Amino acid sequence: MDLFLQTLVNGLIQSGTYALASSGLALAVGVLHIVNFAHGEFLMVGAFTAYWLSLLVGVDPLVSLVPAGALLFVASGGIYRFSVRHVLLAPELNALLLTFGIAITLQNLAVLAFGATPRVVHTAYQITTLSLGPISVGVAPLITLVVSVAVLSGMYAVLYRTGVGKSIRAVAQNRTGAYLVGLDVDRIYLLTFGLASALAAVAGAMVLVRIGASPHMGFAFVLKAFAIIVMAGLGNLTGVLWASLILATGEAFVRTYVPGGGGWAEAVFFLLIFGTLVWRSWRQA
Amino acid sequence: MRWIALAGLGAALLVPWMPAGGYQQYVVQVATFVLINAAVALAWDIQARTGQLSLAPAAFFGLGAYAYTMAALRGVPLWLAFALGPVASAAVSLVLGVITLRLQGLYFAIATLAFAEVVKVIFKELPVDLTGGAVGLTAPPLLGGHQTGLYYLGLAVLLVTIGASLAVRQTRLHYAFTAIRQGELTARVLGVRVVQVKLFAFVLSAFLIGLVGAYATSRLFFVIPDDTFGIGISVSALATAIFGGVYTTAGPVLGALILRTLEEGLHIVLRQGYLVVYGVILMVVILYLPGGLVGLLTRRRGRDAAAGD
Amino acid sequence: MLLQATDLSKRFGGLAAVSRMDFHLEAGEILAIIGPNGAGKTTVLNLLSGVLPADEGRITLDGRDITHLPPETRCHLGLGRAFQVVRPFLEMTVRDNVMVGALFGGRQRPLAEARARTEEVLALTGLAGRADVLARDLNLLEDKRLEMARAIATSPRVLLLDEVMAGLLPHEADQALALIRAVRDTGVAVLFIEHVMRVVRDLADRVIVMDFGEKIAEGRYEEVTANPRVVEAYLGVEDAADA
């Protein structure tokens, strides 16, 4: 029973990071209607930014999520300006291929710059654990969960309580309509893309603390993020929270209870993506 | 165009005989990889003509490679094991094709990507005595590992793929594929048997990729899940085809020639991370060169209206 | 009876787009379906060609039940369709567009025969001079001609046309009219949806009027236009330019 609860808690905590990583992607897909394959690499850049800041400037990695987010917000704005914007109206495959290209470029640039070995940070709270009865929770994971919840709440507040958020939602629902009522669609796209990328960067900082940073980390995360948003239904932001919870706990249980479970846990995500997509396609008949 | 193709074939035939001193082996090796890349890219392109972006080439390549290796290691005569590669890929692709029939564009791409990753994990996690696990298996080389013979076998495989690509272009299949790509519903109303044609394209493509996979084991020496089913294979295939000129036969071949040579050159300088070239090229082509190299070349020579697409 | 629809119905959620339609088309006949916007006319064509599945009812072509057959099979059996909002294969030439119809419609023609058929149809529809132009570079009139040419190339026995006159100038409409007559003279039965009353009057052997998904009148042009119920359905919608 204890193992069961521990696994559940592990999953719960992990779901925070997944939700953070996926919400950004869900935002990009839901508003710009493109699949940003480079989302995982933005996460990776965020992780490395936090890493270097903590190494060079001594800033705690969790604090540097702010500059990491800001950096990605600006950088991705540039990326949007000079490339993504041009494929928004083209066949959707073009956007897919373009962001794929961006992802591969970023990933390999990171390999060139940093080498393929993973980097880790060392902070005091990484080794501390709290005990709540029979369950032990690492302080670091707990903090990341809290931060994730805080950041996501902030995102929701912006989307549903501010004028900008309303504009974003309008553009997501009806691009032409929004344009016709005078909204600057291009600027909103720019903003949203930046926001989505900043979220990825923050998630990256979280992952840095919990695991570390490596140039190839982005790929695994972007696939998981896809699994989550596909399960939630494209463009469904609240669904992302539920899907993250389900998938994270599912992964935790496979890891704990399936012998040699680590490897199969990877397959769980992909099987879920595949299964959900196929099932939905036949149901729509 | 005919002359260029013939000249290219001539050059290809002469590669093992070109004087390159101590680098002879290396040149043949690089040339073989060019053949492999070109063939996979061509096969991907065939299927892409129906408008579906498949990220499953890695799966079919790996299946072909593993089918050959596993059969050969169990005593199956090499030529039979070699034939098993494409057959296994084709069989799996038929099932996958039927399941994913209703998926379009983006969803189809993601589903095929997920499928490829699942296959990779399966081969990694299955019992070691069955598939070699994460460490992989050593593949018995075809033709006893004879370098020159292997090169010509690879050339033969490429020629088969080129033949398939040309056949699709010169027959009624060209119209069917293109119509489906540009308007699936309209094609149906005009009588195109869309389901059959799409499945045919998918299976043919997988068959060819499996063939290349089975062949490539002799060049790569062993099969190992992370590499043999690696997403790099799919990325390379589509980047090569798109760079060279998608929906053409010359495009993927030209693309492979340039890209693989570039990659080898970069690999010498940069031990890792040379894939960055593929990423940049993909970006540049999508933004500025939609017709790829072939598009660039044909535009300069003036539009050839009779070429159709 | 070449084409017959019995009890044809289609609902979209709570909306009955087509409701218990009964009608038929004889060989060599030109039948017009008219009615105010939203009456369900295009939906009927979608049901006939198999683009949409019917909720209820039966469709037979030459005695054969085609209600549950996919669009491509219906085409093989002789049903041709031109869309209201034209759907050319943009990156193909005019000739190649028509080739698709010639190759895969009706009988599966071999390449050489399809080429001959294509040239034939291009000449018939006046597109021979534009055969090598990409479909994306055509003007509206040529677009519509291509749409029809493609459908005609499938050698249909029944041709379904959806508002082909929309947007055409009077002399262009005359040309289209002549083309449809020429097609009928080759033995093809035509079912067309139209708003331009002049064309309906000059072309149709018989007219069906639809309103809110139901057939409210059937007969010759003079009969149905005199029908008070028809006039009532059209009130305020009729195009003042035709009369």
Q: What is the molecular shape of chain C?
A: globular
Average residue-wise pLDDT of chain C: 89
- What would the principal axes of the Cα set say about the shape of chain B? globular
Let me know the average pLDDT of chain B.
87
> Major sheet of chain B, described briefly?
2 strands, antiparallel
What gyration radius of chain B follows from the Cα positions, in whole Å?
19 Å
Strand content of chain C: 15-25%
Number of contiguous helices of chain C: 9
**How many DSSP E strands of chain B?**
2
Strand order of the largest sheet of chain B: 1-2
**Residue runs with pLDDT of under 50 for 5 or more positions of chain B:** 301-309
Assembly status: heterotrimer
What does this protein look like?
The complex is a heterotrimer of chains A (285), B (309) and C (243). With 285 residues, chain A is an all-alpha fold. Chain A has eleven helices and two strands, in the order ααααββααααααα. Chain A has helices at residues 2-32, 39-57, 65-82, 92-114, 139-161, 163-173, 175-180, 185-210, 217-232, 237-257, 261-283; strands at residues 129-132, 135-138. In chain A, helix 3 (65-82) crosses helix 8 and helix 6 packs across helix 8 (185-210). Chain A is globular. The termini of chain A are far apart. Chain B has a domain at 26-230. The longest helix of chain B is centred in the last third of the chain and has 27 residues, at 194-220. Chain C is of the alpha/beta class and 243 residues long. In chain C, helix 3 (94-104) crosses helix 4 (111-124), helix 3 (94-104) packs parallel to helix 5 and helix 4 packs across helix 5. Chain C starts with a strand and ends in a 9-residue tail after the last helix. The model of chain C has no long low-confidence stretch (mean pLDDT 89). Chains B and C meet through helix 8 and helix 9 of B and helix 2 and helix 3 of C.
